[in-house]
Structure formats: C-alpha cells, structure tokens
Amino acid sequence: MKGGVNSMGNFIDTLLAWMNNTHLPQQIKDVDYMGLFTNPWFLVPFLGLLGYLLYKQAFKDLIIVLLFVAVWFVSGMDYMQTLVVDGEVQVSKILPVIYGGAVTLAFVIYMLFGGSD
Questions:
Q1: How far apart are CA 49 and CA 56, in angstroms?
Q2: How many angstroms separate the Cα of 16 from the Cα of each of 12, 21, 51, 103?
Q3: Which residues of 47-68 are buried (b: 16+ CB within 10 A; e: fewer)?
Q4: What does DSSP assign to residue 38?
Q5: In the predicted model, is pLDDT for residue 115 greater than 80?
Q6: 62, 99, 107, 117: least CB-packed within 10 angstroms?
Q7: Cβ partners under 8 Å of residue 9, min gap 6
C-alpha cells in the first residue's frame, strides 16, 4: 500500500488549506437565504423544477433535490462554522456531521440504484 495514513493526512491538510485560502466557510455563512429565496431569478426556475418533478411523479428525483437543498442549508448553520477552531478540527463536533453525511449518501445511493420504480 503506497502512501497510507501519511498521504491521507496530507490530503486533509491540503483540503483545509484550500478552504482557508478560498474563505469558503465565510462565503457559505454570508449567503443571504431570504434574498435568494425571494429573488425571482432563482425562485421561478426552482419552483418550476419542483412543479415539473411533481407533475412527472418523479418522487426519487424530487427527494434528491430536496436533500441537496437541505445539505446546502445545513452547511451554512452556525454549528458548521464551529467545526474548525484555530485551525484544528473539533472531533467531537465533526463525528455527527460525518455520520449524517454517510447516512445521507447511503440514502441517495439507495434512491438512485436500489429499490423499485
């Protein structure tokens, strides 16, 4: 096995450095949710997509779209802003996020590839 744990640590360090350089957490925190969901340039196509999915009775696709919106909403919450304090990941706070992400991903995979139509 080439690399192993050390390469994973380097990957995480690179990812955290990228997030700090792009100010991604601050950008997510600064999103104006009320402005976005009252903007007709966003709202009309989004509601059109939801209406189309309901009309076609594509409930799997509708659930997946709503899950992505929920993940996007949760990523901007104050709890997510406290996952990294002074450059250190708070393990006690990140474990529920990892488990929630794994369950969400498993559910999306099940919706896409498992079950019956």
A1: 11
A2: 6, 9, 38, 23
A3: eeeeeebeeeeeeeebebeeee
A4: T
A5: no
A6: 117
A7: none
Helix, strand, coil in percent for the chain, rounding step 5: 75, 5, 20
User: What angle do the packed helices 40-55 and 59-75 form, to 10 degrees?
Assistant: 150
Considering the entire predicted model, what is its pTM? 0.62
Give first-to-last CA distance, the chain, whole Å.
Answer: 41
pLDDT in tens, 27-62: 777 777 778 778 889 889 989 999 999 999 988 889
* Buried/exposed 5-26: b ≥16 CB within 10 Å, e otherwise: eeeeeeeeeeeeeeeeeeeebe
CB count in 10 Å sphere of residue 99? 10
Q: Say how far apart CA 111 and CA 106 lie, in whole Å.
A: 9
pLDDT bin (cut points 50, 70, 90) of residue 5 is: low
pLDDT at position 1 is 46
